[in-house]
Amino acid sequence: MKSLIIFVFCAAAVAHKIPITPKDAEKFLPECILESGLDPAILSKRNITAREPTPRQESCVFACVDKKTGVMKENGKYDDQFVFHSYLRNHQINPDTWRTNFYETVRACERYVGKDACKLAACVRRMPRYYWT
Fold first, then answer.
1. Chain centroid to CA 131: how far?
2. Which structural domain range is residue 70 located in?
3. CATH code, domain carrying 72
4. Whether this model's pTM surpasses 0.85
5. pLDDT digits 0-9 by tens, 53-91
6. How far is 28 from 44, CA to CA, in rounded Å?
7. In Å, how far from its chain's centre is CA 65?
């Protein structure tokens, strides 16, 4: 249960590949936890009775946060223009290299998980960092 919260924050903070900050994730996390069918008690640091999320619920939290921050469109596709411009605004990296790596990452995940937005979001967030930079 606590592992999901920690993972979401770490994924947002460490994987600076997507233009989302830990503060963004924190803002949408309660809403996304409810939408994903998770026990809201999971957010309580003192509650040890909340059920562990299923892999599906955990993946859907990622998709929900991505959609609410504008990274993913409602149809489950990544908004590459938003991601591209937001990311490059905050990082010194060759735009062509970054764009190619981003597209390859998303395509690899789409081949692996299909059109499922939840699985896609989880795959992209868990992709090793060297695919992005």
1. 15
2. 2-131
3. 1.10.238
4. no
5. 889 999 999 999 989 988 899 999 998 888 777 766 666
6. 15
7. 6
